[in-house]
Design a protein that fits this description.
The chain is α/β, with parallel strands linked by helices. It has 20 helices and 25 strands. The protein is 37% helix and 23% strand. It is globular. Bound molecules: fructose -6-phosphate. The site of fructose -6-phosphate has 14 residues, from helix 10 and helix 17.
Length: 614
């Protein structure tokens, strides 16, 4: 949600800022803006509704000079997307410009207080309240900017990552974070600021992840000082980030989503590297081994997550219960955090998050930690907030996911959950060697099988054309395939805007079957497993109501393939690994239907990649 970029150094700031905004556009894209201080100490702010490309058009013929600047791409929280509400926001005197990601919860009270002092607001944002508050504190107490920011932030309730520059001080950017991510990049005579490392990595691999309530002062492109709200100095912890720039480009694909779907065989390979041995006979997740006492002692696992990561959690529940014989509860992080859950120090809480920044998941982690639970993170973005808040964890190592609809992160999460369940089951002695070897061996062959599935892309693109008429879709699955049905439906609705619901197949007759008619496409995951015959009956019930069945079956299927309208044939694997195979055609189906409908696949309306507000 909202992307922040900042630059101070000897180079022209604007090109670096705009390139950075494009890298962060997945975080929000309803408006964009930039603030620059030129050589004559003019503070120029340009902002406009729409994507970063519209900002580029907007600044043609404008003065975009300056070696210091901040820039923002917005996902609206307070106030509609329009140029007035776009960031940066000026203070009243127009000597300060500020950008913000997060929500100032007490903005209404602060605004009233400022209005009573005569302050006038041009936008309906909480951000403008913050910049006015900083200016008010600065002027009335005759303070420098850093002190004014520190005092203002002490009055603020909510989440923020901010960057602020001052017209008369072109030598510094002040930035701060609380519950919203912010990274400082340290280059050679230049300093960068961004919501994540992606805009920074082409200039430097040295970064500092700010912690909550830390303020960074970036001076002259050379000096980084980090202090807290009470001005105690903090030694910055400089980390090295490794990111391949190619991962941030489309690399010949028409969309990031398609690229990321196709990357999955390599991603799963990378995810297993050093964890599953090359022979495919052993798996060891170091975080489980290193904390085996607490993991073995656990009476219960609770998995907290949102969206696609929550679907992965549902698969994780089945894997862990099956192999480790430990009860597992799966919770929406947003519900868990507010319902006074019963948690204690015999619980292990697993937090799953691609971005590692989801506000609700982070809050669920903090809550569980405060009640004594041991916290295990399964995240993708290295150095993000959730991995830093957990006791231990395993990265999924699938590389940056840029398309807003999650694809490779889901299969990476399921892969890590499989390795976690196997490692723990082996430690507990709840899996016999034969079953263990079978699952590890099959897991090792998943990347090759995924490659086979990807060969179906053209066929799925073709069949997608048939379904652009649909206003509704139903997705059905049972057992391990039920979360896959949920995930298939989520993918379709978020990028094609077709209403889609996933159900456990047997639930159809308890209500949803009333929706089925000749117009209704029903995607059924019907691979050959223990529930095959049951799913067959469910398909017959749908056919009896003239529903259009798109069946996801295994190659060589001779029964369901005869009664379904369309079949997508996949290589077989064992039941518990089926989601790693069956999810892929559903991702492709959603993608191609959205493309046929002319939708903006990588940046669907109203969505943002990293949900840093609750
Ligand atoms: C769907 C999607 C979202 C995310 C959800 C959680 O394609 O991307 O549903 O899965 O917002 O995000 P993370 O995993 O970053 O916590």
């Amino acid at each position: 949600m909202c992307g922040i970029v900042g630059y101070i150094g000897s180079k022209p700031a604007y090109p670096i800022l705009v390139k950075g905004l494009k890298r962060l556009e997945y975080r929000g894209y309803d408006s964009a803006g930039v603030a620059l201080i030129d050589d004559n100490q003019q503070l120029n702010v340009y902002k406009t509704k729409g994507k970063v490309s519209e900002l580029e058009n907007f600044v043609i013929q404008k003065n975009i000079s300056g070696n210091i600047g901040i820039a923002h791409t917005r996902w609206a929280t307070h106030g509609e997307p329009c140029s007035e509400n776009a960031h940066p926001h000026f203070s009243s005197s127009e000597s300060l410009a500020l950008i913000h990601n997060g929500i100032i919860e007490n903005y209404a009270v602060l605004k009233e207080k400022l209005q009573a002092k005569g302050y006038v607001f041009k936008s309906s944002t909480d951000t403008e309240v913050l910049v006015q508050l900083i200016e008010y504190i600065k002027i009335t107490n005759n303070l420098d900017l850093l002190t004014a920011v520190q005092l203002a932030l002490q009055e603020v309730i909510g989440a923020y990552a901010i960057a602020v520059i001052e017209k008369n001080h072109p030598e510094q950017i002040i930035a701060a974070r609380k519950s919203s991510p912010l990274v400082v990049g340290i280059g050679d005579g230049e300093l960068f600021l961004a919501s994540d490392a992606t805009p920074i990595v082409e200039y430097t691999d040295k970064v500092v992840y700010l912690n909550d309530e830390e303020i960074a002062v970036l001076s002259n492109g050379t000096e980084l000082k980090v202090v807290n709200l009470h001005n105690a100095e903090i030694t910055p912890d400089v980390k090295t980030v490794v990111m391949n720039l190619g991962q941030l480009e489309k690399g010949g694909y028409s969309h990031f989503m398609l690229k990321e779907i196709f990357e999955q065989p390599d991603c799963i390979h990378d995810c297993m590297r050093g964890r599953v041995n090359v022979e495919g006979t052993n798996v060891a997740l170091s975080a489980v081994i290193d904390h085996k006492e607490v993991m073995l002692r656990a009476k219960r696992f609770i998995i907290v997550a949102c969206g696609t990561s929550w679907h992965a959690a549902l698969i994780g529940k089945q894997l862990i219960e099956n192999f480790c014989r430990i009860p597992v509860e799966v919770e929406y992080a947003s519900e868990f955090r507010y319902r006074n859950p019963v948690i204690n120090n015999e619980d292990v809480v697993i937090a799953i998050s691609q971005s590692g920044e989801t506000a609700d998941t982070l809050a669920a982690v903090e809550l569980a930690k405060s009640k004594g639970a041991f916290i295990y993170g399964i995240c993708n973005a290295i150095g993000s907030s959730i991995p830093r808040a957990t006791n231990t964890g395993s990265y999924i190592h699938v590389g940056p996911e840029i398309g807003v609809a999650s694809t490779k992160a889901f299969t990476g999460q399921v892969t890590v959950l499989t390795m976690l369940a196997l490692t723990l089951a082996k430690e507990k002695g709840t899996i016999n060697q034969e079953d263990f070897l079978e699952v590890v061996g099959e897991l090792n062959s998943i990347p090759e099988k995924m490659k086979e599935v990807l060969l179906l892309n053209d066929k799925i693109a073709e069949l997608s054309k048939i379904f652009t008429y649909a206003h509704n879709f139903i997705y059905l699955g049972r057992g391990y395939s039920y979360p896959v049905a949920l995930e298939g439906a989520l993918k379709l609705k978020e990028i094609s805007y077709i209403h889609a619901e996933g159900y456990p197949a047997a639930e159809m007759k308890h209500g949803p079957i009333a929706l089925v008619d000749a117009e209704m496409p029903v995607v059924v995951i019907a691979t050959h497993n223990a529930l095959y015959e049951k799913v067959l009956s469910n398909i017959q019930e749908i056919k009896a109501r003239k529903g259009k069945v798109i069946a996801v079956v295994n190659k060589g299927d001779t029964i369901i393939s005869k009664i379904a309208d369309i079949c997508i044939e996949l290589p077989s694997t064992i039941e518990c690994l089926d989601p790693l195979i069956t999810t892929v055609p559903l991702q492709m189906l959603a993608y191609h239907i959205a493309v046929c409908k002319g939708m903006d696949v990588d940046q669907p309306r109203n969505l943002a990649k990293s949900v840093t507000v609750e």
